[in-house]
Amino acid sequence: MYNSRVSTANPGLIQFLLDDSGSTQECFPGTTDPAYVWIERFGGIIMKELVARSTDVNNGEGVIKPRYYISTLNYGSSVEPWSKEPLDIEEAVKRYTEAGNSFGLGGKLGGTDTRKAFEAAEKILAKAIKDGRFKDSFAPMLFHLTDGLSQSDASDVAEKIKQLATNDGNVLVVNAFIGTETSLEYKDPEDFTGYTTEQEAGPSEDNIRLFNMSSPMPEAVYINLTEDGIFPNLREDARLFFDVRTKDMLKHVIQVVGSIGSRADRTERTYDEG
To answer: Strand pairing partners for 14?
Structure first.
């Protein structure tokens, strides 16, 4: 499982859940930037990675092919779709760029109803896996980017999402905590071992919940992250739960998306095969 190549015939789907609650107006620890700015950066860098994986060079000119689609939901106490339907990567980047490299975040959606956001994402993903474009593709990936605080529990909805599947594998739920308050000790990506227990993810109950909502790391993702030297000391039983303490971690966590291709050669880049 998780061996399908990403191509125009079988494109990958990335579902963003972006926390735009009032608490994201608070500065990221050790910086003068609000948390929502870091969430914007994270999403933007992921899109740049997907563009790179979708671009072929022909006679010196780059051609972006629809190998990935992006669906984005901004949420707080309410959920606001960034687009009505998943956008192919070229259209998504065009929209993001024209908006000033922004998903429109600003910490302006009040409280944090994570459950409502996951319920909205579940509807999109349940529809997508039946779509002819995605049913044979590498499993969709849900990227939840948040400062960790929530007034509702989305655990049971996350489990429903994990049961959704394409013919290649179950949907992967990735939770990225934009913050520093965990019990795992590490300094940088090279000594990051990944989270394997609730104790490491805690002591915050919100973080423990995010950890449990995250998918176990598939072998294909683990192999790419370790063999490519992204997280060389990652433990095989780690969950797809990350905390973003530094810009280096921000840059490296996005390679979870890169794991769809990378060393395992799951991204087809030729014109003949898409």
So the answer is: 70, 141
Q: How far apart are CA 65 and CA 271, in angstroms?
A: 9
Do residues 241 and 177 lie in contact, with contact meaning Cβ atoms separated by under 8 Å?
A: yes
Separation CA 260–CA 244 (nearest Å): 21
Looking at residues 123-143, what average pLDDT do you find?
92
What is the reported pTM?
0.90
Residue in the structure block whose two tokens are 């956001």: 117
Average pLDDT of the chain is 87
* Higher-pLDDT residue of 181, 234: 234
Q: Which residue in this structure is represented by tokens 């914007």?
A: 40
Query: By the 8 A CB rule, do 206 and 149 touch?
Result: yes
Model confidence at 272, pLDDT cuts 50, 70, 90, reads very low
What CATH fold (topology level) applies to the domain 12-264?
Answer: Rossmann fold (3.40.50)
Calculate the CA 29 to chain-centre distance: 22
Which amino acid type is present at position 118?
F
Structure tokens, 195: 């989270």
Q: Where are the domains of the chain?
A: 12-264
- Would you say residue 258 has pLDDT above 60? no
ω into 29 cis (within 30 of 0) = no
Query: Of 163, 162, 182, 144, nearest to 42 (Cα)?
Result: 144
